Amino acid sequence: MKNKEVASLLYEIADLLEIKEVEWKPRAYRKAAQNIEALSEDIKEIWKKGELDKVPGVGEGIAKKISEFLKTGKSSYLKKLKKNIPIDVEDLMNVPEMGPKTVKLLYKKLKVKNIKDLKRVAKKGKISKLYGMGEKTEKEILEGIKTVEVSKKRFLLGFMLPNIREIEEKLKKLKEVQLISVAGSVRRKKETIHDVDILIASNNPVKVTEYFINLGDVKKVLAKGPTKSSVKLKDNLQVDLRIVSKESYGSALQYLTGSKPHSIKLRKIAIKKGLKLSEYGIFKKKKKIAGRTEKEVYNKLGLPYIEPELREDRGEIEAGLKKKLPKLIGYGDIKGDLHVHSKWSDGNNTIEEMALAAKKLGHSYLCICDHFGNLRIANSLNERRLLKQIKEIDKVNKKLSGIRILKGVEANILPSGKIDVPGKLLKELDIITAGVHSGFKSGEASMTKRIVSVMDKINILNHPTGRLLQKRKGYELDLSKVFDSAKDHDVAIEINSFPNRLDLDDVNSRAAVDNGVKLVINTDSHSINQLVYMELGIGVARRGWCGKKNVINTLPLNKILKKF
Question: Is the model's pTM score more than 0.85?
Answer without folding.
Answer: yes
